[in-house]
Each structure stands twice: as structure tokens, then as C-alpha cells.
């Protein structure tokens, strides 16, 4: 607890907030990329410590939120195949597709199994060769190494009844998509510390230089985030645009070489569809030729059907940082965690879920 107390220190947080107010001379818009950072910002009321000129907008850094509806529909379709079990992390079960979600499919009799690790699905396949087991592999660079390990383990064990539905996405191309989108207001980024702990910071250097935006690697505690904002504002006020890493206790420039090597062995980079962003070039991880036999879509002959979000759902604007969750007309009334219209209200990292969970409660 001593470790956490240091990075949740009210005194240190107030110190950084005062420094931010002191150096800020004009309006700036900063995007925190990760949904975990969004939850900390809203939970601890960090926005209230910042001067009015500094606006924090919320990015697409929630793996559940950016998984496209077409992949949810594929997962539901796989779960309904006789003799097939769809294994997934629990936070994916209530994400709405175009024809329902995995939880409602499970209630209707489909074989949907929540797991804590992709290796759980591998062990199920090893212990029950009579059934097909498919793991729904979603997430950013943070979850890719564990999923790569599961796939390589299945290959080493010679399992033919295990496969994966891959929906992995990469953060740097998404930042470029945001910066080049019409009406972009983002002038700096707080990069996700756990992604950088795996992949390092080298990919961000070109983005910072090309688009003239500071990118500051931050953690998830209040002091980490306020220090990140301070570093970002300091660069903006001085006209600098560099990659800065005040989260050096966790992140190294080269990242985790073992994890990166494993990801490079099992996956290759390619285009990927994002919920809210559309097709983003080189933003996805796909199975490499050596492991393509573990691709569930090829194994079962499935093609992702085109699917559109509900017209009332403003998740796309939220994920692009153009709209705050509570600015959506459906927020908190027609869209709640119990009856969500979009993924950002479902996920524990979703911006809409953060605003709903930590919203002010009116007295009777």
C-alpha cells in the first residue's frame, strides 16, 4: 500500500495541479488514450483540478469498445455451431452486436464460456478433444503476448480442436487516424503506460515529429496522470513535440523484448476495422502464415458480415474524442450499463461507463 499511497498522494497531486495552472497561458486539448486512465480521471475528479483552458478528451483506448460489431456477430455465430465452445473474457459477453450479445446467446443455449486466461481455453481443448474450442482474442498490444503464447502452446501440443477469433488492434495507427480526421482538436496525447511497457516508445517518435504533437507516457494513478498533463502542457507552451516518459519506473524505450518477439512470431501487422474509426491501415494483428491453421474464421468458413451501430448510439463520436459521454442524449436514460446501446457503456474501461459510475447522485 505504501507504493500506491505515493502515487495517490493528495499533496503531490495538488502540487502538480498548481504547476499546471501556473504555466498554462492558452487553451489546450489533450487526449488520454487508455480507458483505464479515463476511469481514474473521472473517479478522482482530476478534471476539477485543472484550469479551464485545459480540456481532457477521451480516446479509443478500450479494447472492448473498439471491437467492431462484425466481430461480435462472428463470435455469436461461432458459439451457435454445434459441438463448439466460444471462450472469452467476461467483459466481452454483454457487448451488443447487431443481433444480440454473447450473454443472451448463452442464455439461449449456446456454449459460451467466460475464462480468465487464453491458456484456460487451451487446457479445455486438451482435456476435451471431442469439442472445438475458440478463444475470442481481443485487445491492444497488452493482451497480444498472452494470446500469442496460448496459440504457440496449442501448436506445440498439437491441438487441432483449438482456434482463435482474432480482433487485436494496435494503438499508434489509431492516433494517426485521430490526428488526420476532419475536425480533430487533439493537440497532445497521454499514452497508455501498459501498452508502452510491452512495445516501448519508439513507434511514437515518428508520430510526434510528423504531426507536431507531444506524446507523454503515463500510468494510471492520479499523480501519474497529473504529471503527464504537466509534461504535455509544458511542451505545448514551449512549442515542443517530443515523446516524454515520466513513467520510467515501468516503461523502457525498447519495451519488453521477450513479449515483442513472441508477438512478432505469431502475428503479422495488417489493416483492421475499429468500432467508431472504421478501417485503420496497419492497425491490426493477424495470424502469421505459420499459425494460420488456428484462425477460426478460416476453419469454419466464416466471413464477417457488414454491421452498423444503432443510429441513436454516439459511441463513435465518444471514441474519437469529439463528444463527452454525458453529452449524448441517450446517456443514463436509454443507454445504461444494464441496457447499453454501445460498447463504451458496457466495458469496465469504457468512457460512458466511467461517467455513469462516477456521476453525481442527486439527493432525494
Notes on the protein architecture:
With 364 residues, this protein is α/β, with parallel strands linked by helices. The protein folds into two domains: 1-311, HypD, alpha/beta domain 2 (Rossmann fold, 3-Layer(aba) Sandwich); 315-357, no CATH class. It contains 16 helices and eleven strands. It has helices spanning 2-7, 10-23, 35-43, 63-66, 69-79, 102-107, 118-127, 144-156, 171-179, 193-199, 202-211, 222-238, 257-266, 296-299, 315-319, 351-357; strands at residues 28-34, 54-61, 84-88, 112-114, 132-139, 162-169, 188-192, 215-218, 243-244, 267-274, 278-287. Helix 12 links the parallel strand 8 (215-218) and strand 9 (243-244). The longest helix has 17 residues, at 222-238. The radius of gyration is 21 Å and the shape is globular. The mean pLDDT is 91.
Provide a quick synopsis of the model.
The chain is α/β, with parallel strands linked by helices and 364 residues long. The protein has helices at residues 2-7, 10-23, 35-43, 63-66, 69-79, 102-107, 118-127, 144-156, 171-179, 193-199, 202-211, 222-238, 257-266, 296-299, 315-319, 351-357, and strands spanning 28-34, 54-61, 84-88, 112-114, 132-139, 162-169, 188-192, 215-218, 243-244, 267-274, 278-287.
Amino acid at each position: 500500500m505504501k507504493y500506491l499511497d505515493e502515487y495517490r498522494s493528495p499533496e503531490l497531486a495538488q502540487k502538480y495541479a498548481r504547476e499546471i495552472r501556473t504555466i498554462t497561458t492558452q487553451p489546450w486539448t489533450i487526449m488520454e488514450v487508455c480507458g483505464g486512465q479515463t476511469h481514474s480521471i473521472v473517479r478522482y475528479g482530476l478534471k476539477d483540478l485543472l484550469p479551464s483552458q485545459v480540456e481532457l478528451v477521451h480516446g479509443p483506448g478500450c479494447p472492448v469498445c473498439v471491437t467492431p460489431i462484425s466481430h461480435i456477430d462472428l463470435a455469436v455465430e461461432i458459439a451457435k455451431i454445434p459441438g463448439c465452445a466460444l471462450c472469452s473474457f467476461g467483459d466481452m459477453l454483454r457487448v451488443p452486436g447487431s443481433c444480440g450479445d454473447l450473454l443472451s446467446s448463452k442464455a439461449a443455449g449456446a456454449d459460451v464460456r467466460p475464462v480468465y486466461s487464453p491458456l484456460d481455453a487451451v487446457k479445455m481443448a486438451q482435456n476435451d478433444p471431442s469439442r472445438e474450442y475458440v478463444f475470442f482474442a481481443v485487445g491492444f498490444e497488452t493482451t497480444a503476448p498472452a494470446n500469442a503464447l496460448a496459440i504457440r502452446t496449442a501448436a506445440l501440443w498439437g491441438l487441432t480442436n483449438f482456434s482463435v477469433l482474432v480482433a487485436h488492434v494496435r494503438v499508434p495507427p489509431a492516433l494517426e487516424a485521430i490526428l488526420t480526421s476532419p475536425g480533430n482538436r487533439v493537440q497532445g496525447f497521454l499514452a497508455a503506460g501498459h501498452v508502452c511497457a510491452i512495445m516501448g516508445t519508439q513507434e511514437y517518435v515518428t508520430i510526434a515529429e510528423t504531426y507536431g504533437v507531444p506524446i507523454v507516457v503515463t500510468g494510471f494513478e492520479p499523480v501519474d496522470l497529473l504529471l503527464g498533463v504537466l509534461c504535455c502542457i509544458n511542451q505545448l507552451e514551449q512549442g515542443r513535440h517530443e515523446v516524454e516518459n515520466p513513467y520510467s519506473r515501468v516503461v523502457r524505450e525498447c519495451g519488453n523484448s521477450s513479449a515483442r518477439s513472441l508477438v512478432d512470431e505469431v502475428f503479422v501487422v495488417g489493416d483492421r476495422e475499429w468500432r467508431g474509426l472504421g478501417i485503420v491501415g496497419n492497425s491490426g494483428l493477424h495470424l502469421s502464415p505459420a499459425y494460420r491453421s488456428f484462425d477460426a474464421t478460416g476453419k469454419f468458413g466464416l466471413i464477417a458480415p457488414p454491421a452498423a451501430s444503432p443510429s441513436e448510439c454516439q459511441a463513435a463520436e465518444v471514441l474519437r474524442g469529439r463528444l463527452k459521454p454525458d453529452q449524448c442524449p441517450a446517456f443514463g436514460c436509454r443507454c445504461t450499463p444494464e441496457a447499453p446501446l454501445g460498447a463504451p457503456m458496457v466495458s469496465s474501461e469504457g468512457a460512458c461507463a466511467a461517467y455513469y459510475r462516477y456521476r453525481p447522485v442527486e439527493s432525494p
